[in-house]
Amino acid sequence: MALDGRDPVKIDDALRPAMFDWLCRLGDNALILGHRTSEWCGHGPALEEDIALANTALDLIGHCQMWLGLAAEVEGQGRTADQLAYLRDAMAFRNVKLVELPNGDIGQTIMREFLFDAFHFELLTELSTSPNTRVAEIAAKALKEVAYQLDRASDLVVRLGDGTEESHARMQAALDHLWPYTGEMFTADAVDTAMTEAGIAPDLSDLQTRWTATVKDILDEATLTLPERRFDVHTGGKQGRHTEHLGYLLAEMQFLQRAYPGAEW
Amino acid sequence: MYAQMIKSESSNDDPQALAEFQARIDRGERIEPKEWMPEGYRKTLIRQIGQHAHSEIVGQLPEGNWITRAPTLERKQILLAKVQDEAGHGLYLYSACETLGVTRDELFEKLHSGAMKYSSIFNYPTLTWADMGAIGWLVDGAAIMNQVPLQRTSYGPYARAMVRICKEESFHQRQGYSIMMKMAQGTPAQKEMAQDALNRFWYPSLMMFGPSDAESVHSTQNMAWKIKINTNDELRQRFVNETVPQAEYLGLTVPDEHLRWNDDKQGYDFSEPDWDEFFEVLKGNGPCNEERLGARRKAWDDGQWFREGLSAYADKQATRRTAAE
Question: Please, which domain of life does this record's source organism belong to (chain B) (predicted)?
Answer without folding.
Answer: Bacteria
